[in-house]
Design brief:
The protein has a single domain (2-153), classed as Vaccinia Virus protein VP39 (Rossmann fold, 3-Layer(aba) Sandwich), CATH 3.40.50.150. Strands 3-2-1-4-5-7-6 form a 7-stranded mixed sheet. The protein has 158 residues and is α/β, with parallel strands linked by helices. It is 19% helix and 29% strand.
């Protein structure tokens, strides 16, 4: 299963297109601020979240539910406005302004992970890639299993 969360009018073929509002192309209506999400543990091989993270009320719930729903080594692709972008602050519905370190709470080996991961859902991802694309950040993460966390801390997971 592939999920396209908060799809709006950005419909992806071959995905379950999810939004909190029913509109053309939306396959499933669900509010991402309500847990648990309606998919079983480990059911998704891929999650797309384009321009969603900055809108959710609870980013910890968002990241923990993504982790729960992803299959082992499943990928999470997030695109969000970069905090230094004009677009980050233009939309009055944006609730946060992500930086390069916003997701470090869920990345083993980072200072923010070491200090805060338990309070931030105790889930972990490997950062596969990150890049600035105009005014947005695009990040790809792979779900790490509990046994892989020690290897990631040691820097042996790539």
């Amino acid at each position: 299963m592939r999920l396209n969360l908060g799809c709006g009018s950005f419909i992806l073929p071959g995905h379950i297109n999810v939004d909190r509002v029913s509109m053309p192309g939306v396959d499933q209506v669900h509010d991402l601020d309500v847990a648990p999400w309606p998919w079983p543990d480990g059911a998704a091989e891929r999650i797309e979240a384009k321009d969603v993270f900055e809108h959710v009320d609870d980013p910890i719930l968002f990241m923990t539910e993504c982790w729960r729903v992803l299959a082992p080594a499943g990928t999470l692709r997030i695109r969000t406005p970069y905090w230094r972008s004009r677009d980050a602050f233009t939309d009055p519905t944006h609730k946060r302004f992500p930086t390069e370190h916003t997701f470090d709470y869920w990345i083993p080996g980072t200072e923010l992970y070491r200090a805060n991961n338990r309070a931030y859902g105790a889930v972990c991802f490997q950062r596969v890639s990150s890049r600035l694309d105009g005014g947005s950040m695009e990040l790809i993460f792979a779900k790490l299993q509990k046994g892989a966390v020690s290897a990631a801390r040691a820097g042996t997971v790539h």
